[in-house]
Design brief:
By secondary structure, the protein is an all-alpha fold. The chain has one domain. 75% of the residues lie in helices and 0% in strands. It is globular and about 45 Å long. One of its GO terms (molecular function) is oxidoreductase activity. It comes from Lacibacter luteus. InterPro entries: MPAB/Lcp_cat_dom. This is DUF2236 domain-containing protein. It holds the Pfam family MPAB_Lcp_cat.
Length: 257
């Protein structure tokens, strides 16, 4: 069977661990709130009404791409594109191509940033591998102007950050929704986690300090994983309704190994 992502790929390691996935979406949730096209996510009402549900819906699509056959992964990508096309038809105009690229770029950036925070620095070859997986996703979605390599992507990513991010009423409202659905304590943890993985410009726009309360906690968390005690920390931080879905990411990885 041909897989979209090789079974020994670093991408499977990144997306096969629940804590890494949580940090990917912690970072992306911050950057999403600043994106100039975030109004598209408000059009259906699904994001503000259930930001956690939206997160896990996206995780589910990512899992289908990373852990399934090439045919099934392509099918998942095509469905994703069809869903967005349906939203475009309802609204009467197209989502800008740069907005699609921004989302793809977030997945690339935070896959690397989250893994390096919790595990180790990736080699140049591994970063290229991460980029190539999502590049192929973008090609399948018929996105334009995608750089062919990781190194060529880096300045393009920086340009997108400079051009496509701003604080707005959507930014404020989305963070209020995060707090509403997570609760005050978990929301505080989200903010501190975001500080650890977002780029400098995102910190500046959200008025984040450089210091995160989680900085001294990360080494302790790594030790807790070695001692198989990380479940205790997750049980304190994750809403009960979503614990099974998060833990399911770890189970998925074990089944594929």
């Amino acid at each position: 069977m041909s897989f979209f992502v090789n079974e020994d790929s670093i991408v499977r390691q990144i997306w096969g661990k629940s804590d890494t996935v949580l940090f990917i979406f912690a970072g992306a949730s911050a950057e999403f709130a600043l994106n100039k096209a975030v109004d598209w996510l408000y059009f259906t009402g699904k994001l503000p009404s259930d930001p956690l549900g939206r997160l896990f819906s996206t995780v589910d699509y990512a899992r289908k791409i990373v852990f399934t056959s090439e045919a099934d992964a392509n099918k998942a990508i095509d469905i994703m594109r069809q869903i967005h096309a349906g939203v475009e038809n309802k609204r009467g105009y197209s989502i800008p191509d740069w907005a699609y690229r921004d989302v793809l770029f977030m997945l690339i950036y935070y896959s690397i940033s989250a893994y390096e925070l919790l595990e180790r620095n990736l080699s140049a070859e591994e970063k290229e591998e991460v980029y190539n997986v999502f590049y192929r996703v973008g090609v399948r979605m018929e996105l334009k102007e995608l750089p062919p390599t990781y190194n060529e992507w880096l300045p393009v990513r920086e340009t997108h950050l400079q051009n496509d991010l701003q604080t707005s009423n959507y930014t404020q409202d989305l963070f209020l929704q995060y707090k509403k659905h997570l609760g005050a304590m978990r929301f505080k943890v989200l903010i501190e986690g975001q500080k650890l993985v977002v780029p400098e410009l995102v910190k500046q726009l959200l008025q984040f300090s450089d210091f995160s309360l989680l900085t001294p906690v990360v080494p302790l968390y790594k030790i807790s994983r070695l001692m198989k005690m990380d479940w205790l920390l997750k049980s304190l931080l994750l809403p009960a309704d979503y614990k099974e879905q998060i833990n399911g990411l770890n189970i998925q990885q074990k089944q594929k190994q």
